[in-house]
Amino acid sequence: MAVAMTVLVFLLNGIVVLAATDNLICLDVFSSDIRNALQDLAYEADVVILVDDYIQGYVTLSLTDVTVDRAIEVLCMKGGFGFKKLEEGLYVVGSTEPNNPTFQKYADTKVVHVDYLDAEEVISLLSHYEMYLSAKNGVLTVRAWQNQMSFILADISAIDQPIRQVEGKVIIAEVTAEAKAQLGLGRIVGGLPSGNEITLGGPGGVTIGFSDSLTIASLLHILQAEGKALLKATTSIVVPEGSESTISIGREVRQLVKTQVNSGYTIENLKVNTYLTLGVERITSKDEIRLSYEVVAQDLAQNLTSDIPEILSRLANGTVIVDNNSAFVIGGLTKNVEQESTGVIPPQKSKTTQDTELLIIIMPHIVGTPMPEANLMEEYVNRFTQSTQTAMEQAKSLETSTLKLRLNTYYSPGLNDYLADKGYETFPIRMGLEGQLNFTPNIGVYCTKANAQKDLTKVEMFDWGLVLQTSPSSVADAYLGLGGGSGKVSFNTTVTEFDYYAAKAGVDVKLGSLLFGIGYSYAMTDHEGLDLDTAYVTVGCSF
């Protein structure tokens, strides 16, 4: 089947126009006057193109199989002009200068409501389009040619994006040097001169993971109960990119102040505050956050040479770069001040020495990005809101049930004397196994089995009882056992059996799950001439 198509080829003023029945044309323009090119294009495409008198210049262009609209658009783009399609088959081409009469009459107008930026800010960012933009009451008005409008609106949309924000979880605590070591924060960031920059996670910086920050949260509660730390605040702060925010934690102190009249005293309320200013300078494409910080920690101190109270300030500031969902520590804000306080009734003075350090732990999170482990965030908040007593009870609950297994080496001089008197073989030492199960941290039960055999002589002993245990330190357990047992001494075919009551005491030293200890057992038996008092050493493990 043949397809009928009519193609007309014209050569006019350097323009080759191919008109086809499918409404597509081809243009081949070489150093042609733009006005002549538009006129010839209008003639061959059978359309009307109104050309402004200010349009002039030369153009070189080659197009293949394009629509009339596209051909006019490209010609105007090459010449730096604007156009508008008034209706089907009717176009106007004019200058892009807003003061041009044709522009003023035919340019399009579009009202744009920007969502995240001020309208004036958009104009300053798109300065190359400034002549086509105006702002009033926060609304942006765009007036441009049809072929310009799409580019301008696309650029507005590209810059009118929500400002990224960073949420920082903040822990502020005053800790002793011992507590700082227990937290594992021996070397921290702090006291940096303004303008200095460190990259946390690299040499000289300190960064901690999300799970580590949860561990520190729990430890701070326990350390506070021991008097080694003081939790001042746990809070959150949200800072937009390019901005900064400040949080203030304050307290009011009632201070006895000496007056100038009659050497009397008055009570004044003084306010001391801790300020944290956090700024988000930049968020990179890799979700790295450049933060600036400034900490001012105020404390009330008494000047040793004056009765007038003074406010002491500790300052740290600097810039850090951290990854999203990591954490960093601000420290170095030490306080080692000899303070003097005065009692009211009767008036008296006392001196105390403080040696503490302010720690600020911040975990920045870019809002809208995934959390590392979402379920941990709820746990994070709960750990800081629970009471100190609950935190201590949870720590102790891990120790309510303990199983200990021991391998004991016994030395029983009284038993050896009894065997020697009978003419039996003696045993310098005996070996035995012992198991102890604690139902609570202080109460449990035990059982022991010890055997020894040499040639014709065999000694077997088995005892059991109740054990009371205490832990004077984290690495040692002391215990007292009360119970009874039975034993048997065999020589050839002669068998001697006996029962006894025993009391024992000992100490275990714990190295992780390993146990090393010593003890002594005192036994009472009605068997004549038998002394079962025993000293022993032990090695074992606990579960």
- The tally of beta strands, per DSSP, is 28
**Overall 3D geometry?**
elongated
Q: What portion of residues belong to β-strands?
A: over 45%
Low-confidence stretches: 1-21, 186-211, 384-389, 394-400
The whole-angstrom Rg is 45 Å
Question: Roughly what is the average pLDDT, rounded to an integer?
Answer: 78
Per DSSP, the total helix count is 10
| Main beta sheet strand tally, sense and closure | 8 strands, antiparallel, barrel
- Helix-residue proportion: 10-25%
Q: What is the spatial order of strands in the main beta sheet?
A: 21-22-23-24-25-26-27-28
Describe this structure in words.
It is a single chain. The strands form six sheets. An eight-stranded antiparallel barrel has the order 21-22-23-24-25-26-27-28. Strands 13-19-20-11-14 form a five-stranded antiparallel β-sheet. By secondary structure, the protein is α+β, with helices and mostly antiparallel strands. Helix 1 packs antiparallel against helix 2 (68-79) and helix 7 runs parallel beside helix 8. 19% of the residues lie in helices and 53% in strands. The chain is built from ten helices and 28 strands.
Write the layout of secondary structure elements.
Layout: E1 8-12, E2 15-19, E3 25-33, H1 34-45, E4 48-51, E5 58-66, H2 68-79, E6 82-87, E7 90-94, H3 101-106, E8 108-112, H4 119-125, E9 133-136, E10 139-144, H5 146-159, E11 165-176, H6 177-182, E12 197-199, E13 207-208, H7 210-225, E14 229-240, E15 244-258, E16 265-283, E17 288-302, E18 309-323, E19 327-342, E20 349-366, H8 374-385, H9 388-397, E21 402-411, H10 413-422, E22 430-438, E23 443-454, E24 457-473, E25 476-491, E26 494-511, E27 514-524, E28 534-542
Parallel strand pairs: 4-7, 12-18
Antiparallel strand pairs: 1-2, 2-3, 3-5, 6-7, 8-10, 9-10, 11-14, 11-20, 13-19, 15-16, 16-17, 17-18, 19-20, 21-22, 21-28, 22-23, 23-24, 24-25, 25-26, 26-27, 27-28
Helix pairs in contact: 1-2, 7-8, 7-9
